[in-house]
């Protein structure tokens, strides 16, 4: 089962992808996580990606396509995968179709998680990340036991640059302009399935499971 999760930043795609990964036994592939891991290691890719992410811009197609191609070639993707954060442009979607066709594969479903912009802003600006271990908290939904400190390691919690309000709104504008055409792209191919991302986590997962039956 080969799946794509579409939706604005803060739509809850990562949370649902992790739950689906455990449920269906297929890997969750997040381009954002791959970039952050490279940034943590100080790689050239990580530093290059950070320049764009800090400005609320999308990382260039050629960079993203390259890392996705490498990841989909790994053995754990043979029985399926969940793509989160890719594709984000029609050019990336075309590249994905071509790279999958090379190995006789195709996308089965594209889940479009829909959430209003103001809800996204509220969700993301309340996120806090541990400087030491990278654990993520939310002041409303998953607050730390002690304000400003990580439950796991006691590290300092901070607001990531891409979770600041001005950056979040820039990311939303960028998403609408460049990713919105993907919705029509996949709708025209009969693959798009709309999901109400404003519901509870359990309700969103239940909706997804019905689609995948």
Which properties best describe this structure?
213 residues, alpha/beta, 5-stranded parallel beta sheet, 3-stranded antiparallel beta sheet, 9 helices
How would you summarize what this structure contains?
This protein has 213 residues and is an alpha/beta fold. The chain has helices at 13-24, 31-41, 44-54, 61-72, 90-101, 117-125, 165-178, 180-188, 201-212, and strands spanning 2-6, 28-30, 81-84, 109-114, 127-130, 136-138, 157-158, 192-196. The chain has a domain at 2-115 and 179-212: Rossmann fold (3-Layer(aba) Sandwich).
Indicate the overall shape.
globular
Q: Helices and strands: which structural class?
A: alpha/beta
What CATH architecture label of the domain at 2-115 and 179-212 applies? 3-Layer(aba) Sandwich
> How many helical stretches?
9
Share of residues in strands: 15-25%
Helix content: 40-55%
CATH topology of the domain at 2-115 and 179-212: Rossmann fold
For the biggest sheet, the summary is:
5 strands, parallel
Widest sheet, order of strands:
2-3-1-4-8
* Low-pLDDT residue spans: none
| Termini separation | 11 Å
User: Which CATH class of the domain at 2-115 and 179-212?
Assistant: Alpha Beta
Question: What's the CATH H-level superfamily name of the domain at 2-115 and 179-212?
Answer: P-loop containing nucleotide triphosphate hydrolases
Mean pLDDT: 91
Number of strands: 8
Q: What Rg do the Cα atoms give?
A: 17 Å
Order of helices and strands: EHEHHHEHEHEEEHHEH
């Amino acid at each position: 089962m080969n799946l794509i999760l579409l939706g604005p930043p803060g739509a809850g795609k990562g949370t649902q992808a992790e739950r689906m990964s455990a449920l269906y036994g297929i890997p969750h592939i997040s381009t954002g996580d791959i970039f952050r891991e490279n940034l943590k290691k100080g790689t050239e890719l990580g530093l290059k990606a950070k320049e764009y992410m800090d400005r609320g811009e999308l990382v260039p197609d050629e960079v993203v396509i390259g890392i996705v191609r490498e990841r989909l070639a790994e053995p754990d993707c043979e029985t399926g995968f969940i793509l989160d954060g890719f594709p984000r442009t029609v050019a990336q979607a075309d590249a994905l179709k071509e790279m999958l066709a090379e190995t006789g594969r195709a996308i089965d479903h594209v889940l479009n998680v829909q959430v209003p912009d103001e809800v996204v802003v509220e969700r993301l600006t309340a996120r806090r990340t541990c400087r030491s271990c990278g654990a993520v908290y939310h002041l409303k939904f998953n607050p730390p036991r002690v304000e400003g400190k990580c439950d796991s390691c006691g590290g300092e919690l901070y607001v990531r640059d891409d979770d600041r309000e001005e950056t979040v709104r820039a990311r939303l504008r960028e998403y609408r302009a460049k990713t919105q055409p993907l919705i029509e792209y996949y709708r025209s191919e009969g693959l798009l399935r709309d999901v109400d991302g404003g519901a509870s986590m359990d309700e969103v997962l239940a909706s997804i499971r019905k689609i995948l039956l």
